[in-house]
Write a sequence for this structure.
């Protein structure tokens, strides 16, 4: 929702050249929301969903911070200033989401690494018993 508000502010401002970043972030967040809601993350196991969400949060925080600084410092109209302020708020929100997603990603990767050696060990034991 915050990305959509920022998108609307950039459309109404002189800084309309920055409108693509919030639009893409809004669409990407919407896609991931529907992917999780429709359980696509359980159907497509080959996609690392926590990693995709983590990368989205990191890039969104960095991009929103950069374009907010540019919008506040370069443009003097009210809509640009509002978009910049909302952009700084979005940076904080995405940084918090980055932290939460990072913890989920670490848990996800620990699950994957703990499953792998056990699977390899049983395969090694089977191959050793066959060769004897």
């Amino acid at each position: 929702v915050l990305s959509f508000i920022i998108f609307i502010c950039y459309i109404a401002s002189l800084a309309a050249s920055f409108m693509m970043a919030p639009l893409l972030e809004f669409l990407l967040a919407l896609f991931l929301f529907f992917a999780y809601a429709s359980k696509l993350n359980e159907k497509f196991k080959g996609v690392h969903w926590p990693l995709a969400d983590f990368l989205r949060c990191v890039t969104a925080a960095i991009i929103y911070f950069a374009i907010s600084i540019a919008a506040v410092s370069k443009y003097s109209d009210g809509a640009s200033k509002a978009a910049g302020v909302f952009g700084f708020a979005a940076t904080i929100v995405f940084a918090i989401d980055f932290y939460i997603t990072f913890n989920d990603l670490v848990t996800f990767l620990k699950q994957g690494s703990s499953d792998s050696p056990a699977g390899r060990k049983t395969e090694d034991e089977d191959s050793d018993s066959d060769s004897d």
Observations:
- The mean pLDDT is 81.
- Residues 48-112 form one domain.
